[in-house]
What we know:
This protein is of the alpha/beta class. It has helices spanning 3-14, 19-26, 30-40, 70-81, 94-104, 109-119, 130-138, 190-193, 237-248, 270-277, 293-302, 318-329, 341-348, and strands at residues 200-207, 214-220, 226-230, 258-261, 281-283. A 5-stranded mixed β-sheet has the order 3-2-1-4-5, with helices on both faces. The longest helix has 12 residues, at 3-14. It starts with a helix and ends in a 12-residue tail after the last helix.
Amino acid sequence: MTFERRQMLEKHWRNGQNITEIARALCVSPSTVSRELARYNSAQHGWKNPLLTTLPSGAARRPYRNGYRADTAQRRADRARRRPKRAKLADDSKLRRLVIWGLEQQWSPQQVAGWLASTFPDRPELRLSHETIYQAIYLQSRGNLRAELTTQLALRSGRTQRRRQSRLAEADRGSRRPWLGELHISTRPAEANDRSVPGHWEGDLLIGARGKSAIITLVERANRYVMLGSLPDGRDSQAVIAVLTRLAQRLPQHLLRSLTWDQGTEMATHANFTVATGCPVFFCDPHSPWQRGTNENTNGLLRQYFPKGVFDFNTIDEDGLDEISYRLNTRPRMTLGWDTPAARLNQLLDINPTPVALTA
Length: 360
């Protein structure tokens, strides 16, 4: 409710209009008008309906018992809006240090808040909402976290506004893909669709600056575990299949049940991968990235480290990629109940999860 709307409300209320009519005139819901009048009506400023003296008996609206003054309501609303309560992250405290640590790991505010709730369930003083963290980043009076952060951006993608929806490419690129055969995504096992059984992966290539470099990105559908592969010898099909096979050999057979890919030519020799690993490859429909939604989301997270159109993947080796995948795999994920992909995979491997070191 702005002051201008309060002035309009005063005028209509003085004329004896009901709440529904006033709400329609102000373009707000009737509940907004009802709450405003309940909070800020004035028994000292009751208004007599001026139509009572001019209209025949029974034709005028009933005058209201209490009045409403826009200036009085505005002053009372301003007083009610003041919050003398000090912000949670304004003082140097363990909570503030934990939040800063989480942001320095390049976790989102929502991930930090979820991790705190799951890690300290019996410590209400160490819990807060992600909105509180956002306010502490952007508002100096709410904590001024930005001054202490060197890596956190307003958005992990680096964008300051939403990107326009891109148009679909042409329906047919004019090239046949005989290697696809009958391996359509619709024939993928049902257990992969509902994520009930681990071991079903999605993959893609992440392209570097000017299209001159690339890496392989793999993500497991059930626990969101990420593996990255370097392509120093190019991204033709033989090079991609060789790296994919090497990555797959890191896993036990029960965690290698299927791989879903798009219809790119880099998978033309996918049969060699299946022979070497026993893992079948399934292909999505053309121009349907949502059929590999987990991988698309992961590629978006990776752009935080590898900016699109800027980063050259020839400048990073396998050890560097392993460090980035470690960062993603040790992030708490809301979809996992704020557990981490690494902890979930270690449970499947019957290995005790390695605790994350933290000095608070």
